[in-house]
Amino acid sequence: MAGKNFLKRIDWLSVFIYFALTAIGWLSIYSSTFTESNPSLFDFSTFYGKQFFFICVSVIAIVFVFATEANLFERFSGIIYTIGIVLLLGLFPFGKTIAGATSWYNLGFFNLQPSEIAKVATTLAMAKYLSDIQTDLRRQKDKLYAFGILVIPAILIVLQPDPGSGVVFFALTFVLFREGLPLYYMAIGLVVLLIFVATLKFGTIWVIIGVSILIALFYLTKRERVKISPLPIILFFVVSVSISFSVRFVFDSVFEQHHRDRFNLWLRLEKDPKKLEQIRKTIGYNTYQSEKAIESGGFTGKGFLQGTRTKGDFVPEQHSDYIFTTIGEEWGFVGTATVVLLFSILLLRLVYIAERQKNAFSRIYGYGVISILFVHYLINIGMVIGLVPTIGIPLPFMSYGGSGLLGFTLLLFIFLKLDANRLKEWD
Amino acid sequence: MKKVLLSSIIILIGLTFLGRLSYLQIFSFSPNQILEDAAIKAIYDYPERGYIYDRNGKLLVANQAAYDVMVIPREVKPLDTIEFCNLVGIDKSTFIKNIKTAKIRSPRLPYVMVSQLSKEDYARLQEKMRKYEGFYIQKRSLRYYDTKSAANALGYISQVTPADLKAHPYYTQGELRGKTGIEKQYEDILRGRKGVKYIQKDRFNRDIGPYKNGALDTLPEPGKEIQLTIDKDLQEYGERLMVGKHGGIVALDPSSGEILSLISGPTYDPSLLVGRKRSANYSKLYYDSIAKPTWDRSLLAQESPGSPFKVINALIALQENVMTPDDKIRCYNGFYVGKNRTKRGCHCGGGLRDMNSGIYKSCNAYFAGTFKQIFDNFDTTDEAMDVWQKHVKSFGLGEYLGTDLPTGSRGRIPGKEYYDKVYGDNRWSWSYIVSLSFGQGEVAVTPIQLANMTAAIGNKGYYYTPHILKKIEGEPITDPMYTQRKYTTIDKENFDPVIKGMEAVYKTPGGTAHWLQVPGIDIAGKTGTVENYTRINGVRTQLTDHSIFVAFAPVQNPKIAIAIFIEHGYFGGRYAGHIASLMIEKYLKGEITRKDLEKKMLEKTLEKEYAKPYSGEPFIINERSW
């Protein structure tokens, strides 16, 4: 650490937003879980007491990260990744099961969730692999390798089973696109998703009509001279149609009922409004309650500690995955908009920082951080306000959870450390 | 390009979130949230409804306790069902059905298992209830009637309807509210104000403490007791006389406009609309389309007033100086009107009539002549009609009186616009509408308007708007609407000859009610006999005349003005006249000296008369014998 100069090079805007979000999160956890009979602020048997302890641990971790030689993160990324995988594997024999998922180690005073640590490890490993001069994403083998790095932890986590956290790892594919993976992979993914949703919502016939119109438009707008072989077009048509046909089969036979219910709710597939309302209140109970709680906040909210639905525990998991509802109810639109803005500014700032990195490892790592934070933010808030089907993952920096907070803190501050070090080039 | 892509996605998602949040929190937000908030339960503390007394402080309406057996399904432990059912007086199938419904509603919330047990049942149950877990008894307050009279005037209370809830945010589902009569009119006074406690609930609907430490809670304000202007004894007596007759009676105190009795026949016992049989009884009353017991005839029935209206014409003639009381008109057992000299009949016996005999013999010819004089006094018929209508309306006829009762009718005093429409502009004259001179034809009034008109005559030119509320919590009402005189357009001295004529109705042999004199009381009155028609199978058929009577007494300084309208009671001196005579005596003397007259009136009914149009057989009207 190089004293004054180092402090000057830290991106204080990101640090400020980090602490702002953490503080808002902690206040909301306090509001969600305190009881009037026990209003003590730092009782370590309570969620907010524990979270305060984790915030302290995170601050220590930040100091530790800043004090560490920047190049150590790159050098030890392989080892860190291996430790992460071993920890995930170790869960199968030694893990503690909470709510059906074997995702924790019992460390006595708190439970460690290795999947949160694995996010940091995987991001580091991915950055390390992609920044290697010998890696070329145009090669099939290297593509597979890169995918392997994120798929292995993802599979281990899905098997816990914690599918929500597993899905998050696929956020790192965005890094691959940044580093050379052609965009049409993403296009294919999007088209498949679109066909899936459109088939469920409108039916196969309309999908066929839509695809045909698309192809017709393509031919009408293309320049006269350009000759395109009809083969890929026919292939596209055939594949689209067969995907569309298989959607119903997958939906009806492969999916479980509770999956189907989530889609029924999300896409409003149930036509009978009474039945839909029934689904909303039973299967969609969480979302129903969280939407109602946020709605009841209005523009300015009910005030700190005044959220009636929060107090009544109407929203399940309100201190963890549904922490955003507390903000919605007690601070209203002013509060929710502030949080959305803080996240947006932080993410945009990180993109800016990532782009100014001279060193490939730092840049790729930065994109990994952005991807992971972004996917959490997108899915969590989207789920809470009813735009995305229910996937249980935390809101970074804000949701209750020691491993999560520590994981996200390390993820972010390693990047800030790398950025602060960007001009010194490995001294 | 890829760098811009990621940034744009971040911005796009941020905007999407802000859009969705503003939809939820700004557009869907409802500010009335404390009542809609699923996390807050309002517990209401209902004050006792105010008692209702008559003008002399006699109790009319009080409250009685009723007891509901409530059940919280989740807390029910296995029990001896047969024993329980016997105890509360229901059968086993009802028990099973109710438990089922309660469970569907909510296993955690109380549900009414058996409603409105009597005090006796409650006493029996109270001790044994502890044995049955999950059941408890909840006290409710119901109306108790210390009279069998005045059902329509008192009105009833019932559960608020969805429409009420929309119009009056004060109420919540299941609360009681005055629906008709005084209960409706003075709902706010009688009801008081419920207290409320807000309780914070958790998602299992359990209470977890007061909301905001009770900062928004309020204490109940008790309902106020009110004293009516109704005289309980007179009201009950009048209703006894009305048994078997359809019609309306209104008695007023002319010196204050207070309604002494408001009788509509047939009536019903107000207690029928309380308790477990309420809805069955209500349907029975409501769907009785012939007797219409819930239709308050004293306020709503609009009929031609008949001969009592003659005195108004006499007053107008005097006021406009077109006649003196001594001017004479010859009656040819009728009179001749119009181009063709059509003869219209009169039952007075014929001969030369002045105002006095015109009134006491109720001579149609005399008043037709008077009417002609009024109209001849003006250059145009329109002008005459306007003056005539202005005078008539100044007696409170033809418009809503503005009583403090929630129902009423306007009646009808036609004006030139009306006849212009019927006959065409300027294509009619006094002879077309001469029926107005003796209160037949297009003119229509309600019994209460007629009583008020009588009071105005008794007061020689003014009246107080009739009202039924006397005191609130012992304090006399001060509303100027009911405490200030309203003057008619007739000067005081013009009333004397007319009142003389009305006295003569009783006092002169040949007066239409001279056999109905009350010994020791000077009464001024006027009979009325109104022809009326109905349609039977599409054929216009005349029915027996309505019997009408108006009177006030004592003539000097009147204490009571009364209007009586008996459907198909034949001429005015029959049913209406008898009842008026008895009620005036009852009110002024406190007892009846003419027991035979009273006995006759209590026993006579008109049921046969009312059955005639529905019999399907030909029938005769206006039968001589009775």
TrEMBL record, chain A:
Protein name: Rod shape determining protein RodA
Membrane topology per record: Multi-pass membrane protein
InterPro entries on file: FtsW/RodA (IPR001182)
MF terms in GO: lipid-linked peptidoglycan transporter activity
Segments passing through the bilayer: 12-31, 51-67, 79-105, 144-176, 183-199, 205-221, 233-251, 331-352, 364-391, 397-416
Primary localization: membrane
Keywords: Cell shape, Membrane, Transmembrane, Transmembrane helix
Superkingdom classification of source: Bacteria
Gene Ontology biological process: cell division; regulation of cell shape
Lineage per the UniProt record: Bacteria, Pseudomonadati, Bacteroidota, Flavobacteriia, Flavobacteriales
Localization per Swiss-Prot or TrEMBL: Membrane
Cellular component GO terms held in the UniProt record: cell division site; plasma membrane
Region forming the signal peptide: none
Automatic annotation (TrEMBL), chain B:
Record key words, sorted: Carboxypeptidase, Cell membrane, Cell shape, Cell wall biogenesis/degradation, Hydrolase, Membrane, Peptidoglycan synthesis, Protease, Transmembrane, Transmembrane helix
Annotated Penicillin-binding protein dimerisation domain residues: 46-207
Pfam families: PBP_dimer, Transpeptidase
Membrane topology designation: Single-pass membrane protein
Subcellular location: Cell membrane; Membrane
Keyword match Transmembrane: yes
GO terms classed as biological process: cell wall organization; peptidoglycan biosynthetic process; regulation of cell shape
Superkingdom of source: Bacteria
Cited InterPro entries: Beta-lactam/transpept, Beta-lactam/transpept-like, PBP_dimer, PBP_dimer_sf, PCN-bd_Tpept
PANTHER family, sorted: PEPTIDOGLYCAN D,D-TRANSPEPTIDASE (PTHR30627), PEPTIDOGLYCAN D,D-TRANSPEPTIDASE MRDA (PTHR30627:SF2)
Name of the protein this chain belongs to: Penicillin-binding protein 2
Organism: Cellulophaga fucicola
Classification lineage: Bacteria, Pseudomonadati, Bacteroidota, Flavobacteriia, Flavobacteriales
